[in-house]
Amino acid sequence: MNDKPDISADEALQRLIDGHQRFLRGESELSGLPRETLAELARGQHPFATILGCSDSRVSPERIFDAELGELFVVRVAGNILGPAVAGSIQYAGAHLQTPLLVVLGHEGCGAIQAALATKHQGVQQRSRIQLLVDDIMPALDGLDPKLSAAAGLAQAVEANVRWTVRTILESPEGRARQAEGRVKILGAIYEIETGQVRFLDSVPTP
Fold first, then answer.
1. For residues 52 and 87, what is the distance between their CA atoms, to the nearest angstrom?
2. Would you state the pLDDT for residue 190?
3. DSSP labels, 40-68
4. Domains present along the chain, CATH in parentheses
5. Prediction pTM value
């Protein structure tokens, strides 16, 4: 339960980048798993990265990063927001699975972000549970440029939401504790649905 993945944060990030390049080239290595591999996975999991992503059906981290079963610990919620249950899942990944890398993965055209912008700018009220989700996004939208076009404003809001979530994780007691260990990397990324490209928001190795 407490076994550490035998991989550094930078090596984990490079594995994501390499898998993503295979995805973009149409050279996915994913295939049926042999029984021995399934039996090994039944004994425990040792993912090399945690991904906090959106529930959007077009944004599957396992496909985007060409990752096998057991390689990614994925938490998905509309708008890739950081609610209590999500934060608990991320803490589990850090404390028990000790994944060295956490990526907050937003995506272009996010419907949850669009709903939050509609509430912010037009006062639109969503259905009760959706509004609770939107309310969690609202703090990330402070300081956006109101003069931008709808498309540019949405793109800015998507990135702002990812950056706000990353910052919130980094500044949390759990995030600070993991950083103090010296083995964890936390960063944001945006998935471009039209091109299939992932754009990391911080400096990463060039593929």
1. 10
2. 98
3. HHHH----SEEEEE---TT--HHHHTT--
4. 9-108+163-200 (3.40.1050.10)
5. 0.92
